[in-house]
């Protein structure tokens, strides 16, 4: 060999907001959420193959049922890799935690190939908006302080910045100042990643890239002042993390998935 082999990057898949239901024919605005998740999984396998780790950033269930979480766990088996799940506003925290435990998907601090992943619970029971309890903020600060040499990815469900959509302004992370006070102290945080907004989003803050991703079911129209959905295919985000501390990511979509979206709905 005349050229040095590049070390293989860590391959990570983000799946977010699948909104699964106990009923196999359960749909959200006309989209069968089991079918759309399956279409996304097939697209990932075709496009990239298997990841090394899956991050599921909330709203795994629409109805909080154990069946929905089990469907999610069974669906991921095809990837044959670890996953980590956190809850969103639609989830039932205890049921999610119990089923996630069955699939060994309940770890909230993972170290892989020189990177660390911290997963935070921003859900507030009975509320659509999010907040990080003091214990979550302390967990974040402790994890980052204990591993200062490791570049970090911080995941949560709710958006911690304004995304330019009026109806979503009230349902993001309410105590975002406290969150950023922690993040800003730790320059090793390279990425803050979330779900909830059902759309692709990208911004930079100091040392961190801020990213959100399409849902595996329905997509919200970006920049809309009122609730609105658009007919874009279900999607996911794919990452490659390098041991240099750099990473690249791209959004993929299940473009062949056929669906009839109910665009007249005023909520989800
Ligand atoms: Fe959602």
Which sheet architecture does the biggest sheet show? 6 strands, mixed
How would you classify the helix and strand content by structural class? alpha/beta
Overall 3D shape: globular
Oligomer kind: single chain
Strand order of the largest sheet: 6-7-8-9-11-10
Average pLDDT, rounded to a whole number, is 96
Rg value: 18 Å
Order of helices and strands: EEEHEHEHEEHEHHEEEEEEE
Brief overview, please?
The chain is an alpha/beta fold and 268 residues long. Helices cover 24% and strands 25% of the residues.
What labels describe this entry?
268 residues; alpha/beta; six-stranded mixed β-sheet; five-stranded mixed β-sheet; 15 strands; 24% helix; globular; binds fe (ii) ion
Descriptive report:
By secondary structure, the protein is α/β, with parallel strands linked by helices. The protein is built from six helices and 15 strands. α2 packs parallel to α3. The termini are far apart. 42% of the residues are buried. Bound molecules: fe (ii) ion (FE2).
Explain the layout of strands and helices.
Layout: E1 10-15, E2 27-28, E3 31-32, H1 33-47, E4 53-57, H2 66-76, E5 83-86, H3 93-102, E6 109-112, E7 115-119, H4 134-146, E8 152-155, H5 166-169, H6 176-185, E9 189-194, E10 201-205, E11 208-212, E12 219-220, E13 229-230, E14 235-241, E15 247-253
Parallel strand pairs: 1-4, 4-5, 7-8, 8-9, 9-11
Antiparallel strand pairs: 1-14, 2-3, 6-7, 10-11, 12-13, 14-15
Helix pairs in contact: 2-3
The structure holds fe (ii) ion.
